[in-house]
Amino acid sequence: MKHVLNSPPKKDGMQLVQGYPVYTDDIAPKNALIVKVLRSPHAFARIKTIKTDTAKKIPGVVCVLTWKDVPRVPYTRAGQCYPELSAYDKFILDEYVRHVGDDVAIVAAKDEATADKALRLLKVDYEILNPVLDMENAIDHETVVHPEPELFTHINVGCEPKRNIACEVGIELGNLDEALANSDYVFKARYNTQAQAQAMLESQRSYSYLDQNGRLTVVSSTQIPYHTRRILARALELPRHQIRVMKPRIGGGFGSKQTAHSEFYPALVTHLTGKPAKIVYSRKDVFRGTTSRHKMRFDITLGMDNEGMIKAIQMDGLSDTGAYGEHAQTTFGAAGKKVLTLYNKVKACKFHGRVVYSNNVPGGALRGFGVTQGTFALESAINEACRTLNLDPIEVRRMNMIKKGETTPLINMTTKGAGDEPINMDSCLLENCVASGMELFDWDAKKKKHESLNQDSHLKYGVGMAIAQQGSGLPNIDMASATIRLNDDGFFTLLTGSTDIGTGSDTAMAQIAAELLDVPLEKVIVHASDTDTTPYDSGAYASSTTYTTGNAVIDAANKMVTAIRETGAKFFNSSPENILYKDETISCESSGESIDLASFSNKIMYNMIHTQLSVTGSFVPKKTAPPYMAGFAEVCVNTRTGETKVTDFVGVVDCGTPINPNLARIQAEGGISQGIGMALIEDVQVSDNGTLQTDTFMTYKIPARRDVPNIRVALAKGYDETGPFGAKSIGEVVINTVAPAITDAIENAIGVRIRSLPATPEKVLLASLEGVRVAEENIETSSSC
Amino acid sequence: MLSFNTYHRPQALESAYEILNKHKRSQVIGGGAFLRMGNRKLTDVIDLSSLNLDTVQTHTDQIEIGAMTTFHTLESGAHIPQKHRAFFKESLGQIVGIQLRNMVTVGGTVYSRYGFSDLNTALLAFGGAVHLYKSGQISIENFFEQSLPDRDILIKVCIPSAFDAASFKSARLSTADYALLNLAVTFTSGQYRIAVGARPHRAKLALETMHLLNSKGLSHETIDQAAETLAMEMPFGSNRLASSTYRQAVSKGLLKEALNSILQEVHSNEN
Amino acid sequence: MKIKFKLNGQAVETDIRPDAFLIDVLRDLDCLGVKKGCDTGTCGACTIHVDGKPALACVQLAAKADGQEILTIEGVRDQAKEIGRYLVAEGVEQCGYCSPGTIMSILYLEEQIANPSDEEILYYLNGNLCRCSGYTGQLRAIRAYMDSKYKEVNKNETCA
Fold first, then answer.
1. Is residue B7 within 8 angstroms of chain C, CB to CB?
2. Is B95 a residue whose pLDDT tops 70?
3. Which of A364, B190, B217, C140 is most buried, judging by how many CB atoms fall within 10 Å of its CB?
4. Hey, is A664 helix, strand or coil?
5. How would residue A646 be classed by pLDDT, with cut points 50, 70 and 90?
């Protein structure tokens, strides 16, 4: 292959390293009004009055908007295909504020200082209400987060807002009680994962203006241009054809930008004033005004026999979606669907739970999207059960995990439009991942080494492992399309609606196109993420770009080659069967004539036939093509302080064919680093009254360079026949094994089990000193600092 | 959000002092890096950059560190005596990054008496004095214990120029985070000084523990005793980072680490 | 108030609010490679050189820049390209937001330590956060850059 499986540099790479101005705030009009949002200091309150007169009088203040000035149309901000599975529970501005950071008023002024001054001069009289903050007490709490009658859902997801229930999810297979009764050993434990912030380096920002046709144009740091257009149209009560959404280079997302956030404010200001407007979220705005990973709790029950066969798995869960329900149902569902299907040999399994509304900052999409939380719980439970039964965790995985060619009816049950025919995981290389990971990690040798290292030392080493999967796009939901045009001089334009959020997907798509179009990579120029010009793509989420968009690109490229041959036939007065297209040359086999692509394209555009070849391909996944991963962690725990250092981490990923192996590898290394953050460091901390204690990078820490080891990644030699050139996905699966592997390694090192993330030095040390195996979930801390 | 009306960069200390006392909502800034995190509405800000307060001078018995000396200078400056430089690197090297340490000043940190400060713990372990423009010389421990002189300007900090051994230890959630607890020990002419900070309150001397070691000397037995004494004498509190229970427990561990390190250093010096 | 300083070698005079931060002033002066990632001086995306030492534009008062020499990524284009080539070859500049700041830190590191060890690289760059890459790949790239640079130097020395 000339392009696929090679690692050409990203097309935008050199511009990015030199700091070229290609991000949203770099290209915004210099005369744009600066838009700022007043955010609620209270977790739950009703706005009695807002006095805006003083603010409006400041020279340079162009408009001040309160809930009385905006359309009252409920919508969901969730970036999902329509009809969404999220409740329509958000207004642009409302009389109620439902979390600390919820939007209260919008100000637009000629510069930032004036906008800040205007914000300070808004006088809001709140009726402070009693917030519901503990998800365990949210159902049927006397405080109802969403009392408004306008809230509705398109699809019945079990949404009962009067009881603070956002949705209910249930999946079951077989007879759980019977399977548990027939188990030699039943293990039960509760696991908690924390709210984790996406913490991409570039905050949300967007700008808007009216173009020469008076259409509202929005440029945003977004993962979901098409969904944003649809959502804005509804929220602003504008026809969709009057709105254009574009994404320039963006500084990461990790799911944070899979929810529409900043776009509403400048768009509304431009719509009302006709003037360009811009908003740039501060880091505090991001923490208070966007989303973080849903906090989840799982009660796991495992039924096993003494040899290690898992007979039954029960996952009983609770998730906190906070004040708004974007992605509530989808993340929670994923926590069951993409976790239970790893263990296809059980006699029975059951997933059930609810997602609750609360007055916390909302949950949202974050890499892994529920699978991370569910994987932590189940893999931890299996690791713990192995300890009690004195079984090797790797051997137990081998016995129970899904293998190449295998299936389970659960896959049919959890895949939209799947039907009843068994769906075999033909490309599953999980077994190889475990085997080669174990070897690369040197599992046995490390364990032996630790035995002597740990003697007479206050530093204790340990190892742990876990397995995980994710999905590649969303079968029968996600759609991607791609248009390819042949330009004069023999180069191609690839138009794709997909959103490169920094991953290099634009480059990977170009590689796929160039492979089939048989041209050098620089002759495929990519233009993406513009709802006016690029064809529909659901966006960068659900690990869909390589798999779904990649297949759409293949469809388009194949159509282009056909079009070239058909036009070549006309050109040579022959028929398509005689025409060969290869190496940028069109040749007629019967006559022996040939022409190079550049000359051909010039001729057909300028001299004869007079056409520009343009084709569109599309793709919707039909089958589920999960990527798999095995993760192995080695930690060193300082028994004097409780500090844990990850000294080695090996991840082996089956992502099918890696279109660009370098980029795939970096995805894995980056995801593992985020997983280390989730395991040991990161925690969105909230005080008793719902205010965030961690709302800057000074207080919320993500792993720094010296917090991660030399991360070692290997890619299994995978291939999925439904994927583009055999590719599946890699974007999300890479975070899932990290926390359960690390917490098992910690127990291996010092005999302390962390069931509630993150595994802070405090939890580890205090449990160790008290001689307690399972560390306490809630440590008594005051909210003073 | 920070806002103020006038920025001053006075050419003389007396002017700086005058402005500070004339405007009640004014503030002296060192690097100014922490200014942004407050929510204060100030009228005036006084930058001491033009007063040549960024020098470090080594004399026979003490090192004079000018108030505008940055953390990065302390950990890497060629003119800083090598032993001190190494100790400062140990104490300050986990504060966010070199860029921030290049902006944060000794004066800014010491005058503010931040509880979370690593530098304050290290300086208290050294001992020495703080020099204020009008209030004159105050010992470091008194400066941290007593109520703050009103609207004065910190000019320099003086610490001993010689010590036999020193160790700084801290427990942290990550390598760029605030300390959950920090601790510094210096050993000079047979005397130990032990300071504990980020309790979460500001650095404080562990007098009883110091007395124990100063009378009984350093050995594996006294290390264990010292750890117990420290945990008993030092007041700890809770905040979002850690509980008092943890701080008390980890104080023992950190002291043991520091004292073991000193024991090693002293032995290698002797050999 | 007016401030005068040197920006990427050029004398600059500009009017600022007294409480303006340097990052906004620099970005208004078209130094758009200085990125806003936080506003607490904790992510390193706004790393610049002030009088030859690394500093964070988001927490430096613009007024302090009066009389200083400021260097941004725009002023080191050739070096940025050279180092950047290695980052790009490794696939490790992903969203790119941390790259200019990281490169400014690498340039300072090079001035302080010739052919730094891995540990020294990590120490000098710990204030530059990256959420995309996991750091390991960045170290590979920086190592390759340093190795090639210092192999050349050694080669020249032996040939001399």
1. yes
2. yes
3. A364
4. helix
5. very high
How far apart are the C-alpha atoms of B212 and B205, rounded to whole Å? 13
Q: Which residues touch C84 (CB under 8 Å, ≥6 apart)?
A: A13, A14, A17, A18, C93, C99, C103
Mean pLDDT of the residues in chain A: 97
Banded pLDDT at B1 (limits 50, 70, 90): low
pLDDT of amino acid A469: 98
- Burial label for A125, CB within 10 Å (0-12, 13-18, 19+), is exposed
- Name all chains with 3 or more CB-CB pairs below 8 Å to chain A: B, C
Interface test mutation site (partner A, options C46, C71, C93, max chain A beta carbons within 10 A): C93
The whole-angstrom separation of Cα A533 and Cα A526 is 12
Amino acid letter, A316: D
Burial class of residue A63 in the structure, from the number of CB atoms within 10 Å of its CB (0-12 exposed, 13-18 middle, 19+ buried): buried
Q: How far is A697 from chain C (nearest CA, A)?
A: 6
> Looking at residue C154, what is its pLDDT?
63
Q: At a CB cut-off of 8 Å and minimum separation 6, what does A754 contact?
A: A743, A746, A747, A763, A764, A775
Q: Residue A260 maps to which CATH number? A: 3.90.1170.50
Residue A673 class from Cβ within 10 Å (0-12 exposed, 13-18 middle, 19+ buried)? buried
Which of B97, B171, B243 has the CB atom closest to A780's CB atom? B243
Question: For residue C62, which residues of chain A lie inside 8 Å, CB to CB?
Answer: none
Q: Does any CB of chain C come closer than 8 Å to the CB of residue A665?
A: yes
How confident is the model at residue C43, as a pLDDT? 97
Task: Tell me, yes or no, if A669 comes closer than 8 A to chain C by beta carbon.
Answer: yes
Comparing CA positions, the residue from A94, A100, A97, A120 lying closest to residue A36 is: A120
pLDDT reported for residue B124: 98
Q: Is the pLDDT of residue B2 over 80?
A: no
Select the residue of C44, C64, C128 nearest B49 (Cβ to Cβ).
C64
Range of weakest confidence among A619-623, B83-87, B145-149, C28-32: B145-149
Q: What's the whole-number average pLDDT of chain C?
A: 95
User: Which CATH code of 3.90.1570, 3.90.800, 3.30.43, 3.30.70 fits the domain covering B6-50?
Assistant: 3.30.43
pLDDT at A725 > cutoff 80: yes
B250:A761 CB<8 A? yes
Rounded Cα distance between A692 and A13, Å, is: 36
Instruction: Identify whether the C-beta of residue A187 lies closer than 8 Å to the C-beta of residue A309.
Output: no
Nearest chain A residue to B34 by CA distance is A698
* CATH number, position C15: 3.10.20.30
- What is the pLDDT at residue C155? 62
Query: Residue B96 and residue C42: Cβ atoms within 8 Å?
Result: yes
Q: Higher confidence at residue A116 or residue A779?
A: A116
Confidence (pLDDT) at A779: 47
Percent pLDDT > 70 in chain A is: 99
Report how far apart the first and last C-alpha atoms of chain A are (Å, whole number): 58
- Whether C159 has a pLDDT exceeding 70, the answer reads no
Contact C64 B47 (CB under 8 A): yes
Contact A18 C100 (CB under 8 A): yes
- Answer whether A698 touches B (CB < 8 Å): yes
